[in-house]
Amino acid sequence: KLTSLALQPAITPELVQGRVHLKCSYSPPPPEPPVQFRVLWSRLSSPGKREQIHQETTSQPFSYVEMDGANLRLGDTVFCTVTAFRRGTPEQQSLPEDSKGFYAGIKFLPESLEIAEDGKEHVLTVLSTVPIACPGQDDSCKITLQLSTEDLGKSSQVPGPPDIALSACQVDLLPGPCSASSCAAATVTVTAVTDFARDGNRVSRLSARPAAPGDALWRAYTPRDVKVTVRDLPTGNCYSFTDPHIITFDGWRYESHKIGTFLLCRSESRPFEVHIRQWDCGGHRSATACNCGVAAR
Hints:
Layout: E1 10-16, E2 19-25, E3 35-46, E4 49-58, E5 62-66, E6 77-86, E7 89-93, E8 97-98, E9 102-103, E10 106-109, E11 112-116, E12 122-128, E13 143-153, E14 164-166, E15 170-173, E16 184-192, E17 202-210, H1 216-219, E18 226-231, E19 239-241, E20 245-247, E21 253-255, E22 260-266, E23 273-280, E24 289-296
Parallel strand pairs: 11-18
Antiparallel strand pairs: 1-2, 2-5, 3-4, 3-6, 6-7, 6-8, 6-9, 10-12, 12-16, 13-15, 13-17, 14-16, 17-18, 19-20, 20-21, 22-23, 23-24
């Protein structure tokens, strides 16, 4: 009789003898009569399509499959499907029950960012959903991810310099116990570049690449990119012109007739300042100064 037994299969990652395995666990039904389980492992080969990678019949309430880099690779979304039947009567099966899809590989949280050119730092977490295994390298066991950014621009524009800046060019994922959906994690901060250009909202891509991994499992793996949208903010303007009329960022107007070199403006939060030089430009009735030089950092 086809019935649903609420087996609730779930996939968790584990290190078995130093190698990465996935474990499918399920709740066995009441012990009488003795029950066998058929466990079918599959991976998402394309949207909506699954490809079978392993099948076994067992009396245990769990099943293992190894991530060998061939049948099962990093970047795969994996499922296990469990069917129960009585020993000796395999034709009387329960309804097959699916686990949730388990993504094996690197995840970025959040998966995409929308930030503004306001100087704020945004924390991006890089995590591995599978354990970090380094056979024979236990003293310096880690996976180093090389981070890079690329400006995708707007559809009507040629890509320019990256619109985002990272706090680090690489992060290390160190081995540790798996908990929740993470086996190793690191953080990096992302800031929008304040470019003083009215260049509209631009999209940048943040990529991570494993750097010279010792483990063959990581060698051919490229994690998914993160899309970062930078919202353009209108930039302030200040002026000093002719016999210097000065208009400040907030629209205040005044004049300066002194001779010499002066600090026009300076940022208190980053290395940015502008100096101006004013000289005597020959007023008949009173001393008049004019702009004659500018230096900006």
